[in-house]
Amino acid sequence: MKHWILVAALMTCCLSGLAWDSLSHSSQAASVAQAGASTDKMQTTRADFQKYCKAMEGRWIGEVVWVADWPGFGKKGEKVTGYSDFRISHNGSVMQGRFNAGPGSGIGLYHYDAGKKQIQGRWVSSGGSVWNQVIYKKAGQWHEYETGSVADGRPIVMSSIRQISNDGKTHKRVGSTKIGGKLQDPLQDVWHHIGN
């Protein structure tokens, strides 16, 4: 029972944070447009959200190379094994994610924002970093645009494509990351589905 109370409290906090973020940071849409993608092109449907959740659901093991020094996780260039778990809940309206690699961990929450017509996600790590995601499908592939900040306040901007193969059992994330305006090593994580 205590576990579910903690999960409910975390979800309430995350959803409150997403609502506050939407209300108080309307400039994010402007920064997305400046990154070369209009917000219209980042729109999707609730049916797409359900497909994305199905593609992500379950337990995963990943070959991760840190593209930067991540507080609480490791140094740039280090190779680690990552573990993640994604669960759909609340009548299909929410997907919760958990991530562990090295000494660090993270928790994420995904939902569909009908007003913005976007799949949105928010991750918070044990190292104090925060990521806000907009996920959309383009040319048959899932694109993930992320903004946020490292614990020391430097901004994070990531743009990646999730390449799915092996009947959905292998996901490779490729893309670019900027921290504090400086380009980092290319993103090249590979994840393998190991069960539900």
Topology (SSEs and partners):
Blueprint: H1 2-24, H2 27-34, H3 46-56, E1 58-65, E2 79-89, E3 94-101, E4 104-113, E5 118-125, E6 130-138, E7 141-149, E8 155-165, E9 170-179, E10 182-183, E11 187-195
Antiparallel strand pairs: 1-2, 1-11, 2-3, 3-4, 4-5, 5-6, 6-7, 7-8, 8-9, 9-10, 9-11
Question: Quick gist of this model?
Answer:
21% of the residues lie in helices and 48% in strands. It is of the alpha+beta class.
Low-confidence stretches: 1-36
**Overall pLDDT score:** 86
Q: Roughly what percent helix?
A: 10-25%
What is the CATH superfamily classification?
Calycin beta-barrel core domain
Helical/strand content category: alpha+beta
Named at the architecture level, the CATH assignment is Beta Barrel
Can you characterise this structure?
- The structure is a single chain.
- The protein is an alpha+beta fold and 196 residues long.
- The protein has a single domain, classed as Lipocalin (Beta Barrel).
- It is globular and about 40 Å long.
- The N terminus is likely disordered.
Which structural traits does this protein have?
disordered N terminus; 196 residues; 21% helix; Lipocalin; alpha+beta; globular; 10-stranded antiparallel barrel
